[in-house]
Design a protein that fits this description.
alpha/beta, 11-stranded mixed sheet, 15 helices, 40% helix
């Protein structure tokens, strides 16, 4: 499967497309072939757009043949989470009903992408209204984690189809969103790289909201370098910053903080060990490793367990914009939305004030190191069957989100990259946290780490055949 051009690094795809040794049509056809081979099994997409994507690819080839260039992502196969408004494609946001037509007018992120003439292969599954970390969906079924052929394991959420689309070879770049880990959890659980941008850096306009405070657009790809390439193609237009991913630093010039508590608690067998081994390898290669505890972690996690601000903000959106959807919610989502009914206004303001305080203290502490390293997700992807008993889903969902939500509640940007497998043979992610607005520097550090440890394709190999 990995001989498909879809698996080529994005920089190499760009060079070959312009040299005429690769066509956008060939990339789209490779994605379609992969979908025909694995699509029904992996179930990454709610809306498959293969025929239209092929037409888009042929149009891109015609422009390239005339010497035109619409941008770095031109002709590349991408998937988009079904929470983004995309021209010509329905938006369900993981719900049982198609959202009103206004949710098919693209906002800044998708508009910036579409101007570069990529091939949009389709819209990937999401947890309903992005409110969940495991990737399950009662309405449409849950994508299958490609790394377990025998059992249906969760792919991570809420961007549940995004990582699966990459591993199965139907896209080279995936767009997700991250409110408490919804890019990093699926990236970690499916063995790819994922970026959570700093809140406010990229617009969330025309992305169906979960939390107006915490939502962030994000990217998933097979390599950190692929994310860095795509970030540079998009960021200046979206952030207004004249900033690019800097040259990859030497590990010897980097200081990484490693917390001794919280992130390592109750990890599934093999997860902590695999991440520790990766950190030791970075240290042996010259990186300086110091102990650093992030401020306010316990307070942040307690606030998260109370529902944070997302439940109240989603409830407000649904009740004002889509009241007809409330009675049809996935029970796992409905329970969390209903809990917001009991939150008084003063408590919501109090929670926002706590977040502001956490942002400030975390930014100050992060100035002491270049980045902080932790396991991305503490649990191996659970089987769908294991989530069926009463109380099993909330417990596993909270456990899956525990390590990632800290970045959102502390106002940080964050990256995950695969570093090995746990004792169940499932991918393990290393989380790299950096201070607010350090997204470009974070990606450069991620490239340095990836250069030492290897890419996910090199570390994990191929998933089992269907």
């Amino acid at each position: 499967m990995q001989d498909s051009p879809i698996f080529l690094p994005l920089r190499e795809q760009r060079e070959r497309l312009r040299a005429g040794t690769l066509t956008a049509t060939a990339l789209a056809e490779a994605a379609i072939a992969a979908y025909q081979q694995r699509g029904q099994h992996d179930h990454a997409y709610l809306t498959w757009n293969g025929e239209q994507a092929l037409a888009m690819a042929k149009a891109a080839d015609a422009v390239l043949a005339q010497g035109g260039d619409a941008g770095a992502l031109m002709g590349m196969a991408v998937s988009i989470k079904d929470i983004y408004a995309v021209t010509g494609l329905p938006t369900y946001a993981g719900s049982s009903q198609r959202l009103p037509k206004r949710w098919e007018r693209p906002g800044p992120v998708v508009s910036t992408l579409l101007k570069q003439l990529p091939s949009v292969m389709g819209k990937t599954h999401t947890v309903e209204f992005a409110f969940g970390g495991l990737g399950t969906n009662a309405h449409w079924g849950s994508p299958r984690n490609p790394w377990d052929r025998n059992q249906h394991r969760t792919p991570g959420g809420s961007s549940s189809g995004a990582g699966v689309s990459l591993v199965s070879g139907t896209a080279s770049l995936a767009f997700g969103t991250d409110t408490a880990g919804s890019v990093r959890i699926p990236a970690s659980m499916t063995g790819v790289a994922g970026l959570k941008t700093t809140a406010g850096r990229w617009s969330t306009e025309q992305i169906v909201p979960l939390s107006s405070t915490l939502d962030t657009p994000g990217l998933l790809a097979r390599r950190v370098d692929d994310i860095a390439f795509a970030f540079d193609a998009l960021d200046s237009s979206l952030s207004g910053r004249d900033e690019h991913v800097p040259a990859t630093p030497s590990l010897a010039d980097l200081t990484f903080g490693v917390p001794e508590t919280f992130f390592w608690d109750d990890c599934s067998p093999g997860i902590a060990e695999t991440v520790c081994s990766a950190i030791k390898q970075l240290e042996a290669a010259g990186a300086r490793i110091v102990t650093l505890e992030l401020p306010g972690i316990d307070e942040a996690y307690e606030l998260f367990k109370l529902g944070g601000v997302a439940a109240a903000e989603l409830a407000a959106f649904l009740k004002t914009e889509l009241p007809e959807m409330i009675d049809c919610l996935d029970p796992n989502v409905a329970a969390r939305v209903k809990a917001a009914d009991d939150m008084p206004a003063w408590d919501y303001v109090r929670r926002r004030t706590i977040l502001d305080s956490l942002y400030q203290s975390a930014a100050a502490r992060m100035a002491d190191v270049d980045a902080v390293l932790t396991p991305t997700v503490a649990i191996t992807p659970p089987t769908i069957e294991s989530l069926e008993p009463a109380g099993a889903y909330p417990k596993a969902n909270m456990h899956a989100l525990r390590n990632t939500v800290i970045a959102n509640f502390l106002g940080l940007c964050a990256l995950t990259l695969p570093v090995g497998k746990d004792n169940a043979g499932m991918p393990v992610g290393l989380q790299v946290l950096a201070g607010p607005w350090q997204d470009a520097k974070l990606l450069a550090m991620g490239q340095a780490i990836e250069n030492e440890l290897g890419t996910g394709l090199e570390i994990l190999g191929q998933p089992p055949a269907v």
